[in-house]
Amino acid sequence: MRLTVLGGGGFRVPLVYRALLDDSGSPEGRCTELVLYDTDRARLDAIGAVLAHQAERHAQGPGGGGPAPAVRATTDLDDALRGADFVFSAIRVGGLEGRTRDERIPLAEGVLGQETVGAGGVLYGLRTLPVAVRIAERIAEVAPEAWVINFTNPAGMVTEAMGRVFRERGLGDRVIGICDSPVGLCRRAARALGADPDRASYEYVGLNHLGWLRGVTVDGRDLLPGLLADPGALESFEEGKLFGADWLRTLGALPNEYLHYYYFNREAVASLTGADATRGEFLREQQARFYAELGSIADPAQGGPAQAYDAWERTRLEREETYMAESREATGGWQRDSCDLDGGGYDRVALALMRAIARDERTTLILNVPNRGAVPGFDADAVVEVPCLVGAGGARPLATGTVAPDQLGLMLGLKAVERSAIEAAASGSRSAALRAVALHPLVDSVRVAERILEAAGR
Questions:
Q1: Percent of the chain with pLDDT over 90
Q2: What is the signed CA dihedral for 89, 95, 98, 103, rounded to 10 degrees?
Q3: Contacts of 338 (CB under 8 A, 6+ apart)
Q4: CA-CA distances (angstroms) from residue 387 to 149, 210, 400?
Q5: Would the pTM count as exceeding 0.90?
Q6: Per-residue pLDDT reduced to its tens digit, 306-328
Q7: Please, which residues bridge with residue 397 across strands?
Q8: Can the peptide bond before residue 154 be classed as cis, meaning omega within 30 degrees of 0?
Q9: d(CA 235, CA 237)
Q10: pLDDT digits (tens, 9 = 90+) for 253-264
């Protein structure tokens, strides 16, 4: 099986390769070739050095492990796609420089500047969607049988826009979006209950970065009400610390961590405005140092793959430790638990998804897929984030039942924003772009939306 990663010079790629190595002993349906595509050859070479050390360590492990997937890098998109069984799309259009502008422009107007939420997320989408659609068109042409697993943010609108390309060509629902936030929330809630996260089932509903965990069932019994009634257990994990036990009991559900930007918007904006750097600025400087370091030590004469891997691991740990730091600062300045610093969210979901499709190993995963009647109030093609039954035929969303009015209202409002952004990216319509920004629940004035678009050159 061949897996192609678009954005193959990106920082998360070693996590994906780690998951593939862990699965290399499987007798069938395993990945035998990993193709990395990026427009930046230096980044490909740097990440290639990290992967080389991972393969070396794998070969030296107990029993030698299974055969490591061969790795090939290319800057030619069609070459990367040809023959692919799965395509991971993990691109960042405009790089981290673009992300910092998405953050700073809204903050200058006193509204949230964040990668995927608020006006910043809309700006990122407007820049990313045309590229994502062009990539989908090439996949449909060059590798029409491939399954596309979308990592690219903003994941909901990007998955929906890419999926339209395949359906228009009669290829069906072959684009599936994934995110590690829901799985992280579910596992933390299960651990707080003293349950095995892998034995529990979860009732979850939302859009990407806007969802709620509404049930945690073990042996046929929903344990979430007991958790909501226990302040100590509630505030023992990240979401409890972010939102507070009182608010979670009031909601009657556990929100995705990104809902902190909605429920505590004023505090979040104040924390972001007062910070020395935005998240994008921090990552821009961190990655510049990382790739510069790997540019020297990737050469065997200067250090080689082992040192490249060590540099990647140090950088990865720093990224995890500082994740959503401004929200944690706004709620007491607490540190993340050690079990949340291992990484492995995206890659765990992606590997489980690939295995389910390639081997027909049926499983249930929380994914971003067309609604197909799962969530009342949304049309069939609207991409939602819900538990799905996954097998050889792809991902089938499971019916969620009635959604609380407050949750459904936020979801419908944000879906209107996403679809306005998709329209603006496809047509170049400024009115659609203005609608996307101005209708966002976290933008408080049409005049503010106009100034944000003007500053972004829209």
A1: 81
A2: 80
A3: none
A4: 16, 14, 8
A5: yes
A6: 888 899 899 988 888 887 666 65
A7: 388
A8: yes
A9: 6
A10: 999 999 999 999
